[in-house]
Amino acid sequence: YKRQLYDIIALYYISRKISMPKKIIYFFLTILTVVAVISPAFTASAYEITGFEVSAKAGMLVSMDTGETLYSKNIDEKVYPASITKIMTVTLMLESEKYDPAGKVTMSKEVDRLITGTGSAVSNLKIGEEITQLDLVYTVLMSSFGDCAYLAALYYGGSVEAFVEQMNNKAAELGLTGTHYTNPVGLHDAQNYTTVRDIHTLATYALKNETFKTVCETARYTIEATNMSGKRTISTTNLMQDSNTNYYYQYARGVKTGFTDEAGRCLVSTATYNGYNYMCILMKCPANAGKRYEFIDSANLYRWAFNNFSFKQVADSTEPVCELPVDLSFDTDFVPLYFEKPFVTVLPNEADSSTIVVKPKLNYEKKDAPIKKGEVLGTAEIVYAEQVIGTVNLVAGSGVKASKLLIALRAVKGFFGSFYMKIVYILIALVIVIFILMIIRLNIARIRKRKVKYIPYGKKKGDDRYDR
Predict the structure, then answer these.
(1) Confidence tier at 43 by pLDDT (50, 70, 90)
(2) How many angstroms separate the Cα of 284 from the Cα of each of 39, 195, 292, 322, 421?
(3) CB-count burial class (<10 Å; 0-12, 13-18, 19+) for 339
(4) Lowest mean pLDDT among 45-49, 131-135, 292-296, 373-377
(5) Residue 302 forms beta bridges with which residues?
(6) Measured distance CA(396)–CA(336) in Å, rounded
(7) What is the C-alpha separation between 329 and 407, in angstroms, rounded?
(8) Closest CA to 123 of 106, 94, 144
(9) Distances (CA, A) of 253 to 137, 214, 249, 280, 353
(10) Residue range 50-68, pLDDT digits in tens
(11) Bridge-partner residues for 310, per DSSP?
(12) Which of 238, 257, 256, 198 has the alpha carbon at shortest distance from 74?
């Protein structure tokens, strides 16, 4: 970006040195300026996608196997989460001490008051109707009912305010520095916001819970008869999991949809095929009638990943990466460093291993013995196409014994080179200087005593026979 700006400035000054028509000058300046301005958008992705465009304002595609980001766009910009918020809501439900899958919760008038007029999707549970807590999880996560999210907040938090405080505390615990919640539903609020990066962190964490994973991967669920209603079947809002829709994608799994006018169409999903697992997050997709771009773009990204990327071992632990200088050992002056474990990542099928660069970053300029085999002494960045695709620990390939003699010599050297010894040296030097000065002074005094002016007896004034 800076280089392009320099080119603009350079062209301007060159044009002043030569006779160039102003229209041509302005044309080139305009082109370069436009390139400089829009070029950051071209580098938003880790790899350049081909054959389609992604309509989302922000998003990413990440390998769940290696953590490699294949596509990213504005992942740290603030976005409104809409019902993606319910990932946090359900996480707190499942982690609550009060959670009992068979335990019952009752729809209340307070919930009806909170949800009325919000425009949120509702379950139509009647006031006083009881459902199991597991059923409640399905209604919040799979079908995204706002009244059920409020019911969960009241039951597990005691109040909506207390539950929202728990949500923000959990966000802080997970390191979601770009996230803040004001309600458990995802209703629009300027202070209810997040980022794509934070959504990825939260979703990755939530999917470690087996109940969460099972619920979000379910397309249809039957709620058994309650005290006020018969059996009913509810459906997922993720149409990629619904085989009865045109958006069905057979490899898709979960996780959560979201929509408000301000947030646009949002989708967090995963897909699994042939041993490869990816998570796709798309935020603020267009909400055009008749087309659901969040599903279309997600499926396109998954196909792109499955067709063009594969696992590659770009570093093994059998060959030394570099050496680290060693001190205090008679046996060796260097210890070889190896990768702690083989590094496998997802790379383009045509990736050339010669373009993969390993950049060691050692913890020491020189390491004192003893050194244990396997001791971590640094890290190495794995760089492909000028992007860091991973970091691996560097460990000692062999143990190094320390020499007691060298340790003793260093101790002696350290003692005589210590701060206190330097003070002693200074004092000794001062004593010597003072002693020398005293000797010089005594010698000068003795010389003065010996000098006696001799005037011969009988010398007359003006007689210069004795003036010699």
Answers:
(1) very low
(2) 22, 11, 11, 46, 69
(3) buried
(4) 45-49
(5) none
(6) 6
(7) 9
(8) 144
(9) 17, 10, 9, 11, 33
(10) 889 999 999 999 999 999 9
(11) 347
(12) 198
Strands 356-362 and 376-384: antiparallel
| Helices and strands in the chain: count of H runs, count of E runs | 12, 17
Distance CA 124, CA 148 (A): 10
Residue ranges with strand state E in 160-306: 220-223, 232-235, 252-260, 264-273, 276-285
pLDDT of residue 33: 39
Q: 133-141 and 86-95 are packed helices; what angle lies between their axes, rounded to 10 degrees?
A: 160
Residue 266 carries which DSSP code?
E
Type of residue found at 463: D
Tokens 């998570």: give the residue: 279
Among 4, 169, 164, residue whose Cα is nearest residue 86: 164
Q: What is the H or E stretch that residue 455 is in? A: none
- Whether the CB-CB separation of 245 and 296 falls below 8 Å is answered with no
Alpha-carbon distance of 199 to 220, in angstroms, equals 25
Mean pLDDT of the 96-116 span: 97
Rounded-to-integer distance, Cα 235 and Cα 257, Å: 13
pLDDT mean over 178-194: 98
Give the integer Cα–Cα distance in Å for 383 and 353: 11
pLDDT tens digit string along 443-468? Answer: 888 887 766 555 555 555 555 544 44
Going by C-alpha positions, the residue among 59, 253, 232 that lies closest to residue 131 is: 232
Average pLDDT over residues 390-418: 85
- Separation of alpha carbons 256 and 202, rounded Å: 12
Q: Specify the DSSP class assigned to residue 457.
A: T
Cα-based distances in Å from 357 to 184, 283, 391: 46, 33, 12
**Measured torsion, CA atoms of residues 197, 199, 202, 208, in degrees rounded to the nearest 10:** -100
Q: How far apart are CA 185 and CA 123, in angstroms?
A: 13
b/e per residue 155-165 (b: at least 16 CB within 10 A)? bbbeebeebbe
Query: Read out DSSP for 306-367?
Result: HHHEEEEEEE-SSS--EEEEEES-SS-SEEEEEESS-EEEEEETT--GGGEEEEEEES-SSE
**Residue 83: which of 220, 298, 268, 296 has the closest Cα?**
268
Highest mean pLDDT among 21-25, 371-375, 454-458: 371-375
Please check whether residue 339 is in contact with residue 381, taking contact to mean a CB–CB distance below 8 angstroms. no
Burial grade of 131 (CB within 10 A; 0-12, 13-18, 19 or more): buried
